[in-house]
């Protein structure tokens, strides 16, 4: 699973008092910034059209079967933090850059859709099909619960990043909106990396040889295929 920040940008320009080159002026009377943080509930989409040969070739998944075992099912998910920002800006005289004051940031975090695959080699409703689907639902739950647990610390870190970058001095002649969003993303990048690490670790717990053997024994199926 790769983590991707999607950029949605809105820009407001506001006339401001004259400023000295190289520093952002004080702006008395500015309202405090606002942060709207939403946790997106995941959806699950089930696929049954990829066989055992094709499953390992799917992209953006975190599942690795133990040595000697085939990948019989797969959950593909992308945790996202989508940012929308609105701000006011003022160009400093003398080529000193542009000052940016963040007014509002909207963040949407979550796994919007989890693509779940059960190998096409197993007929729908068969013992093996149902056992694989139960296993993949465990991955779906792990991804949803782990992402939800990271929402509060992610919101706190994003709020701190907003305050630390208000005002934000950009040494440019004009503001590229991606620069503003990029500064916010840089602030939360350590937490996003930690989320990725925890997701890998928790998903890996149910992808060990012992876990696979236990699940197959519990399922009691007899028509497993490895190719």
Short description, anyone?
This protein has four helices and eight strands; from the N terminus they run βββββββααβαα.
Structure explained in plain terms:
By secondary structure, the chain is an alpha/beta fold. Helix content is 34%, strand content 23%. The chain is built from four helices and eight strands; from the N terminus they run E-E-E-E-E-E-E-H-H-E-H-H. It has helices spanning 127-149, 151-164, 177-205, 209-219; strands spanning 7-9, 34-40, 43-47, 73-76, 80-91, 98-110, 113-118, 168-170. Strands 1, 2, 5, 6 and 8 form a five-stranded mixed sheet that branches. The protein has a three-stranded mixed sheet with strand order 3-7-4, covered by helices on one side. Helix 1 packs across helix 3 and helix 2 runs antiparallel to helix 3. The chain starts with 6 loop residues before the first strand and ends in an 8-residue tail after the last helix.
């Amino acid at each position: 699973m790769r983590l991707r920040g999607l950029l949605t940008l809105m820009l407001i320009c506001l006339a401001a008092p004259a400023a000295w080159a190289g520093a952002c002026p004080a702006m008395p009377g500015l309202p405090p910034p606002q942060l709207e943080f939403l946790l997106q509930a995941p959806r699950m989409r089930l696929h049954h059209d990829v066989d055992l040969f094709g499953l390992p070739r799917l992209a953006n998944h975190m599942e690795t079967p133990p040595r000697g075992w085939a990948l019989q099912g797969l959950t593909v998910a992308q945790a996202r933090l989508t940012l929308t920002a609105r701000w006011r800006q003022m160009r400093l005289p003398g080529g000193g850059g542009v000052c940016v004051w963040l007014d509002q940031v909207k963040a949407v975090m979550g796994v919007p859709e989890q693509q779940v695959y059960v190998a096409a080699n197993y007929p729908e409703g068969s013992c093996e099909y149902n056992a694989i689907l139960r296993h993949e639902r465990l991955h779906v739950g792990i991804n949803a619960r782990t992402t939800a647990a990271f929402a509060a610390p992610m919101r706190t870190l994003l709020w701190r990043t907003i305050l630390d970058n208000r005002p934000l001095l950009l040494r440019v002649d004009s503001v590229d909106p991606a620069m503003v969003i990029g500064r916010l993303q840089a602030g939360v990048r350590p937490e996003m990396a930690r989320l990725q690490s925890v997701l890998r670790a928790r998903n890996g717990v149910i992808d060990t040889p012992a876990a696979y053997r236990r699940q197959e024994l519990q399922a009691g199926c007899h028509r497993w295929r490895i190719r």
